[in-house]
Amino acid sequence: MKVPYIMTPGPTQVRENVRLARALETTNPDLDIQFFDFYKETCERIGQFLNTKNEVRILSGEGILGLEAACASLTEKGDRVLVIDNGIFGEGFADFVKMYGGEAVFFKGDRQKKIDLSALKEFLDKDSDFKYATIVHCDTPSGVLNEVDKICPLLKERGIITVVDSVAAMGGEEFRVDDWQIDIALGGSQKAVSAPPGLTFLSISDDAFQVMENRKEPIAGFYCNLLVWKSYYKDKWFPYTQPISDILGLRAAIDNILEEGQENMINRHKKIGSATRKAIIETGLNLYIKDGYANTVTVIQIPDGVDDKKLRDCMLNDYGVFIAGSFGYLEGKVIRIGHMGENARIDKVSYTLFALQRSLENSGFKCKDDMVKVFLKYTC
Ligand SMILES: *Cc1c(COP(=O)(O)O)cnc(C)c1O
Questions:
Q1: Which pTM does this prediction carry?
Q2: Nearest protein CA to atom 3 of ligand 1, as residue
Q3: Quick one: which of 22, 162, 168, 353 is 20 to 30 A from 102 by CA?
């Protein structure tokens, strides 16, 4: 299989040391006591990455498993859950809430803007009787970034615990679980963390544990039951055999992040994100979002007369570059460049923009300026 140049908003490119870590010889992770320490230490390093002292767990399934596990563990029949929705992932939380018997109550925002805090406040002043709330940090299909730093304290003040999907933001954007009072924070291996898909990880606050422990009905299911793990270390017991090679890879990726330093990593994304947006605008294209731009993904409106699929095929077949379209209500309307994690490098984005400009011209769209030149003007 010839692997193209992956510039999608996840999965992202994976560094060699992460790939090699996955090839290391493995022990029996159920029985070998060393692995319990390795797992615990890896969770602690993820906690460092998330800026939290809360318990962290790595679950064996990609990003979506974390979203479902949070809803499965918190929701009981008839619970009212606030679903904050300004995008496809935001809205999607309602499905998990309903699946486990909850009543999803939407707060809907403009899909081209970040969540309006004063409108949310007004809404909460009228109705704040919710067991928990769900919110997406970066809603990847549109590239909108929500201010979870302000939203979560607002909810917590009213006694509402929060589930935050930061799968596509953490690592590329500031993310401070304890300072922002996030009860369950969700991440995945395949976005800015830059490991292959296969793992989700999450932090769980004492308040969230308390809600789970005070349920009237036990949590339905096993894989999605976050209580099963409560004392794995003390008991030296895992609910199922751990995917040890995936965890070795994730550990190497987390170590890469801690070695670079979070601040450096966030600044790298700021610079790349902002230069990419300028390169798009100054060459005559339009961004999809009107405010709340994520620095991990740029979502570009497809110009009139250009076919989304043909454009992406040209990038892939003629230049070997894989970018993404979108889905749901955005299908065929936008293209997405994922510059998160290992993708957020000047050389990688430059080549992607070169391929984009050539492919646009091939579709008959004339750019007003040289995309790479504009990008480099703002990055170098
Ligand atoms: C990628 C992503 C996930 C993980 O799920 P996928 O199966 O990779 O789609 C969850 N939430 C968000 C916001 C994501 O971008």
A1: 0.98
A2: 63
A3: 168
